[in-house]
Amino acid sequence: MKNFGGLLLAVLLLGVAPEVRAQKFGWVDSEFIIAKMPEYAKAQAELNLLSDTWQKEIEVQKKDLDKMYRNYSAEEVVLTEAMKKKRQDEILKKEQDVKAYQNKQFGYEGQLFKKRQELTKPVQDKVFEAVEKVAKKKSLAVLFDKSGDATMLYTNPAHDYTEFVLEELGLGAEDRNQPGPKGAVKTVAPPKTPVDPNFESDSGADPAAPTKAPAKPARPTKKRAK
């Protein structure tokens, strides 16, 4: 959500005159707002389902790879050099295929990355529209995003307009103003193949799998901006 926060700040700063310091300003917590939206929870559930499906497929491929290696190790002593070379090539090809598939699904700009962008963009757009409406209604010259790239060393609760944005989104009921679960996308471990000191692999290092984001703590009750 960091990029969204930076975009939010940049757009709201456009057209701000030098006398902005004399104007009204405020801040919102976009991550808190997005985490409360039903659309976001639905998107995370869909991402988790896709992640689980792809992980299971990779686990099946890893088992096949392990089986190929065990069979080769057990039969190595009775194989000719030509047969050994052929079996080794088959194992290396399988290993590379597994890693290529994992990278395709979970790597940088892989299927999971693209799907996350596809599902979260409508949510971000909806929040941005609500922020713009609140800024206009409250005659604010600038609205900062507390969860964005800009470092905010101190935030006065009196200038917090997060609750107004939640109300604009229809999420301002008192019994609903608690942070919702983020539902971090599950990760998949890279395939591990037993290593024979006499058997060399040229498939390279495992690609990095996505990390699980920590849950954001509940925001304390604050005096709302007027």
Notes on the protein architecture:
The chain has 226 residues and is mainly α. Helix content is 52%, strand content 4%. It has six helices and two strands, in the order αβααααβα. It has helices at residues 2-13, 30-36, 38-75, 81-106, 111-137, 162-168; strands at residues 25-28, 142-145. The protein has a two-stranded parallel ribbon with strand order 1-2. Helix 3 runs antiparallel to helix 4, helix 3 (38-75) runs antiparallel to helix 5 (111-137) and helix 5 (111-137) packs across helix 6. It is rod-shaped, with a radius of gyration of 25 Å.
Short description:
Helix content is 52%, strand content 4%. With 226 residues, it is mainly α.
Stretches with pLDDT under 50, minimum 5 residues: 10-17, 175-191, 201-218
Distance between the termini: 27 Å
Total number of strands: 2
Structural class, from helix and strand content? mainly alpha
The outline comes out as: rod-shaped
Number of helices: 6
Helix content: 40-55%
Summarize the biggest pleated sheet. 2 strands, parallel
Helices and strands, in order, run as HEHHHHEH
